[in-house]
Protein 1
Amino acid sequence: MASNWIHRLFNPHCEHCQEEREDSKVCESCETLRRQLEISNFDKNKLLDRLLEKPGPESKPELREVTRPQSIPWAIRRQMLEREDREKAKLMAQAPQPIPTEELEKELDVAAATREAESKH
């Protein structure tokens, strides 16, 4: 080591020393390209591993039996429709009746008049 700096002192333009200096310099763009290449190679290897891995057992979808629509005789179909209509009518009769608009307007007028009377006092 001690002789190395002495050699450089007396022979600054030695070919061997010059090559050594050039090799020791780090090119930033080369390092960036090396890092990008490493990342690219890593991604490619990961993808290749994924493509080459053996697939696990696949679950087969359940097949349902295809059933044909059964034709219903008209008499039975008519009875079903009439029963549904009777149920709808029964539910509509039991449903609360809407309040007529005139009554709601009267209630609003009374409430507004009450508020005005209270605000004047």
Protein 2
Amino acid sequence: MDPLTDFLYQMYLAVLEESPLYQIPRGSTDLVPGGPVMHGPWPAATCAAVLTIWYALGWIGLYYPQMPPKWNVTPAQWCTRLVDGDVLPPADGQTLLAQPRRWVAGHADGHACLYCTETGQNTPWQQWYVVALETTQQLPITERKP
């Protein structure tokens, strides 16, 4: 799989796996018999651009899971505006996705998790790929080394 397709597919998997935002730019590792396969890390802004497209189409949403009290996660302003108990309102979700610098593990922003909406579940992977491809082609998909 080429790096661009791999990146988009990993973003799609992050949605299906309901990943918290802070984990997404870090990438992932597949443990396979031939040895580990690394995906990422990716620029957070590129991740945000793709997720924002899918969010605007109504294919994904964000929810805030119950955090263990001992984790001592700093709450976000949107925590008081959750819908149906744990879903971020659309405006708050859109704002959070547009600001990936807020996706840190010690803050509620970073623990907001992706989920696939019913519309997203009924949309084939190929369509997810096509709508994000043009934007992604114009952005870096590899992290620059400091």
